[in-house]
Amino acid sequence: MKYLSTRDKSLRLRASQAIAQGLSRDGGLLTPETFPTLTPALLEELRGKTYGQRAVAVMKLFLEDFSEEELTAFTQAGYAPEKFDDPRVAPLHPLTEDAYCLELWHGPTSAFKDMALQILPHLLSASLEKNQEEKTVCILVATSGDTGKAALEGFKDVDRTKILVFYPKDGVSAVQALQMQTQQGSNVGVCAVHGNFDDAQTGVKILFSDENLREDLAKRGYFLSSANSINWGRILPQLVYYISAYCDLLNLDKIQMGEKVNYCVPTGNFGNILACWYARQMGLPVGKLICASNSNNVLTDFLATGTYDKNRPFHTTMSPSMDILVSSNLERLLFALSGQNDKEVAGYMEQLKQTGCYTVSDEIKARLKEEFYGGFCDEVKTGEVIAKVWKEHNYLIDPHTAVAYDVMEEYRQKTGDERKTVFVSTASPFKFCDSVLHSLGVSQVCQGIDALDQLAQVSGRSAPAPLASLRDKAVRFEESVDKEQMMAVVLDMLK
Ligand SMILES: *Cc1c(COP(=O)(O)O)cnc(C)c1O
Questions:
Q1: 353 contact partners, CB below 8 Å, separation of at least 6
Q2: What is the pLDDT of residue 444?
Q3: Mutation test of ligand 1: which of 120, 141, 143, 146 has the most ligand atoms closer than 8 Å to its C-beta?
Q4: Is 426 in the pocket of ligand 1 (CB under 6 A)?
Q5: Does the CB atom of residue 399 touch ligand 1 within 6 A?
Q6: What is residue 226's predicted lDDT score, i.e. its pLDDT?
Q7: Nearest-CA residue for atom 1 of ligand 1
Q8: Which residues contact 268 (CB under 8 A, 6 or more apart)?
Q9: Where do the H-state alpha helices sit in 189-292?
Q10: Per-residue pLDDT tens for 5-51?
Q11: Is ligand 1 within 6 A of the CB of residue 229?
Q12: Which atom of ligand 1 approaches the CA of 229 most closely?
């Protein structure tokens, strides 16, 4: 199987080349040319396996230049019991007979980014070796919270890699800041940047495009790469849990083999929901794909009209990981829906760059309507949903998950579709204690990390161990710099 750029399909790379490169040189996203078939027989076989075994079986279909032994080693390390606090890794929580919550936050950083970032570093390190890359890769990340910590945990002490994370000094929660400041590992660096997420991200983009820096680092034996969801190595591990959830529904006797199930995904950069769409391409019996947004509802409008328009106000919400106006991975969907028409995709992306807006063809519009439903949930409603699910089901969810739950309900009411639905839970409620406590009606919310204990007390649930133990961890990284000084931080780390 070859990997193509969404903007130039004459490019044909092996899997390990696509993963080592991350982004195509033409700006396109590297994407499999074809999708292997998930036959009922294979699904039947996966039913009897553990999560790690399911991951190996699915990933090996896409990674022809990796051996089964390698993939087994990666999943055993990435999804090890020391790292995931549930042996099922991605357990399915039945809320009602029709609604099942897929919990993707049992990993080391309590957010779904772990599902992929526990595997990507191994894939990347092996890909460098397979391509005779002698230099060490340095992953640079600008984070608004979840990605930075998950990347640090994933890359910590992985051979031939270093990782440096910049976060906005005033833009992450107390828990998130402490998670990063106390990061362990010999190959990691963390630095706060004065300003907001945009300042940190702009700073990182400038570093990536600096030719002199690139040359200087090459002489020192390093090259820069990124860990965000444009890399195929981050999308692929995400296909697994959609397939795994279907197996679990079969094993629970909730569905018959072949019966279609709807999936509802809280969406930001479109990586997570795209993985589900790919699983359907492979033959997973998926009914509607429900795309849930917060007040930044650019995708809701796009799915309804076929026009993507990022010219709109940016809202800061209590589901910050979905505060995104340009969803990069949508480009991969457009590539598929246009019949792999690279020129057409490049055209849309050029318009997006020039005007912030594009309209897809009628053919694509029709496909979108058929396969997706888009909805959004505003701030007030998000809080209400957290309280309602707690009251009615005695189940605690975070704001991102609440957005998904609400849009799932809206879809059902509007359409009368009664298919069983899996809605995706992307973060532990303990990662967003303040918002959850406020939503539950607590008026005096404790400051900083004390809110963790408060939520544990109010809910009678215990906080995930890695969050609860933050209090006792030594702070290693206290540096904060102006964005003009970010280059110096990189050079200092890669001496
Ligand atoms: C990253 C993230 C999302 C959005 O996922 P995408 O793949 O960017 O669509 C949703 N919820 C949480 C908690 C996240 O960290």
A1: none
A2: 94
A3: 146
A4: yes
A5: no
A6: 83
A7: 321
A8: 321, 322, 323, 324, 327
A9: 197-208, 211-219, 232-251, 271-282
A10: 999 999 899 999 999 888 888 889 999 999 999 999 999 999 999 99
A11: yes
A12: 7
Q: Is the CB of 113 under 6 A from ligand 1?
A: yes
| pLDDT tens sequence across 90-148 | 999 999 999 999 999 999 999 999 999 999 999 999 999 999 989 999 999 988 778 99
Closest Cα partner for 295 from 265, 266, 272? Answer: 266
Distance 495 CA to ligand 1 centre (A): 34
CA–CA distance, 454 with 461 (Å, rounded to integer):
10
- Nearest-atom index, ligand 1, CA of 145: 15
288 lines ligand 1 (CB under 6 A): no
328/383 Cα distance (integer angstroms): 28
Q: How far is the CA of 84 from the centre of ligand 1 (A)?
A: 19
Centre of ligand 1 to C-alpha 320, Å, is: 9
Q: Are 331 and 28 in contact (CB under 8 A)?
A: yes
CB-neighbour burial class of residue 325 (10 A; exposed 0-12, middle 13-18, buried 19+): middle
**In angstroms, rounded to a whole number, what is the distance separating the alpha carbons of residues 353 and 131?**
33
What is the model's pTM?
Answer: 0.95
Tokens encoding 53:
């075994």
In 3D space, the residue among 91, 105, 140, 98 whose CA is nearest the CA of residue 494 turns out to be 140
Using DSSP's 3-state secondary structure scheme, residue 184 falls into coil
What does the longest C-alpha to C-alpha distance in the chain come to? 62
Q: What is the pLDDT, as a whole number, of residue 105?
A: 97
CA of 238 to the centre of ligand 1 (A): 12
Centre of ligand 1 to C-alpha 268, Å, is: 5
Q: CA separation (Å) from 189 to 128, 204, 253, 284, 471? A: 21, 14, 47, 40, 20
Which of 114, 299, 322 maximizes ligand 1 atoms within 8 Å of its Cβ, making it the mutation to test the pocket?
Answer: 322
Going from the Cα of 144 to the center of ligand 1, the distance in angstroms, rounded, reads 11
Instruction: Please tell me whether residue 140 adopts helix, strand or coil conformation.
Output: strand
Q: Are the CB atoms for 146 and 109 separated by under 8 Å?
A: yes
CA–CA separation, 467 and 234 (whole Å) = 24
With a cut of 70, list the residues of the chain below it in pLDDT: none
Q: How many other CB atoms sit within 10 Å of the CB of residue 444?
A: 6
DSSP secondary structure of 443-479: SSPPPTTHHHHHHHHHHSPPPPHHHHGGGGSPP----
Cα(469) to ligand 1 centroid in Å equals: 24
- DSSP-derived secondary structure for 273-286: HHHHHHHHHHT--E
Number of CB atoms found within 10 A of residue 30's CB: 24
